[in-house]
Structure formats: structure tokens, C-alpha cells
Amino acid sequence: MHSTIVRAQNCFGFFTTVAFCTALLTALSVLFIPQNPSASIEPVLRNIQVIKGRPNYYSTKKEEYAHIKFDVDADLTSLFNWNTKQLFVWITATYPSSGPAPNTRLSQAVIWDTIISSHSQSHPFNLIQYVNQQFKNPPSKKKDKSRKLSNRKGEPKPEPGIIRLKNSKPKYQISDISGSMSERSNITLEIGWNVQPWVGALTWTITDRQGFWKWNGVKPGRSKSFNLPALKGKSSSATPETVVTSGESPKAAKVSAVI
Questions:
Q1: Confidence check: pLDDT of 218 > 70
Q2: Percentage of the chain surpassing pLDDT 90?
Q3: CB 230 within 8 A of CB 236
Q4: What is the pLDDT of residues 84-139, one digit of tens each?
């Protein structure tokens, strides 16, 4: 009863009980923290193209795919709290699938995504983050003066969750199983996210109609509907302003850093 093994088992059992209760209270405490995310997303109509080719290097045949540029101004700082590890953000394009009108369903495709880490991820005592930085950026013998200036102690760290992209290029193109994407109508862009905590359950996008207690949905979070132009190189009577002619070239994307 009073042996070393019994005492060790009692200490370990007490430790696991305290750890479980602490983790449970940490996960439940997030419900009392208000969330008020906001996001505005709009497509850049002058730089929307429908091209025929191979959208991916592993594509076996040529098909039509859409290249949609967009502007984003999002404030997701309220999603970060003391239990947030990182935030996975994405932008989806919703468009009607090919087929007869009565049986037409909506399809969704991700055109852009990113991972935003919290301040706790870059903590100097975070062993995992330290190992990853040493593996990706081994210490060099030459001293970088600009790096020293940027790492001053007096400079405040920007809040994570601010996304401001101007005329940004998509990471992924969208295509359809029919191989045709030109002159599609009622296309919308929508932002979504997944909060990955240190302890607790994953939480997903909350729309404006899905508010829960102190958690408000994103406003507005969705763009106005727009139409895709005709295939590049062909004229279109429906939306001539969105076709990029051979004499024009899309402007370079001005993308600010994602914090």
C-alpha cells in the first residue's frame, strides 16, 4: 500500500485527472470569448479569364478552366484567443454545374487558401517551432543587419488575422467535368475558415445566419454574383468588359503580407 510503485501510480493518476480537468475548462472557456469576424471579397472582373489548356501538370487532356482574380479585406482577429493554435482560411468559388436546368446543382471549388499562425506558435519556448525554423533556415555565418533591425524588442507584433489582398492571383483554377467553363453565370466567391485550437474541438465557418451566443457570423463574407466571360480569343456579347484581349495584359497582383 505504501510502496514506491503505488505512490507513483497515485501521483500519475492525480496528474492525469488535473490535466484532463484543465484541458476541459480551457476548451469551454472559448465559448465566453466573443467573435465578430468580418470579410469583404469581390472579384476583379477585368482580370477574369477562361482559358483552354491543361489546368494542372497531371492533366491528360486540354479543357477550359477559369482564372479568377479577387480583392479581399478581412478582419479575423476575433477568432484568435489564448486557445487558438492556427487558423486555416480558404476562398471558394460556387458555380452551377453542367446539365439540364431542372437537375442543375451547385459546385464548389477552392481557389485560394492560407494558414495563419497565432503568436503562441512563434513563442521562443515552443520547441516544435524552434526545430522547424532551424531546419528551414539554418543559421548562417554572415550577420544580416536588416534582420536585426526588424527584430527589435520595441516593435509591437501585428495582430494575426488581418488579410488584405489586392488583385490577388488564385492558387488554383476551377474547371468542370464537362470540360466547358465559358459563359457560366451566377458565380459567387465566399470566404471560409477552420479554427484549430490547442485543446478542444475544431470550429468551422459561421455565416451571418448561424450566430451562436457570443459568436457572430461573418459579415458579409460573400461576393455579388458575376458571370464568366467567353473563351479567351473569342468575342462574347454578354459580358465584353470581362474579356482580356490580345493587346492587354492583366496587372500584376499587389498582395500585402498575410499576418
A1: yes
A2: 31
A3: yes
A4: 999 999 999 999 887 655 567 888 999 999 999 887 665 555 555 555 555 555 55
* pLDDT tier at 1, thresholds 50, 70, 90: low
Rounded distance, CA 11 to CA 5, Å?
10
d(CA 235, CA 170): 24
pLDDT at 24: 92
Alpha-carbon distances, residue 71 vs 38, 166, 172 (angstroms): 14, 5, 16
Query: Cα–Cα distance between 173 and 169 in angstroms, integer?
Result: 10
Instruction: Sheet with 70-75: list strands edge to edge.
Output: 219-220, 38-43, 70-75, 162-168, 254-255
Q: How far separated are the first and last CA of the chain, in Å rounded?
A: 56
Distance CA 245, CA 150 (A): 43
Give the span between the Cα atoms of 53 and 33, in whole angstroms.
48
Residue 241 grid coordinates? 468588359
Nearest to 87 by CA among 59, 54, 113, 58: 113
Q: Is 239 exposed, middle or buried (0-12, 13-18, 19+ CB in 10 A)?
A: middle
The pTM of the full predicted model, rounded to 2 decimals, is 0.73
pLDDT digits (tens, 9 = 90+) for 40-70: 999 998 889 898 888 777 878 888 889 999 9
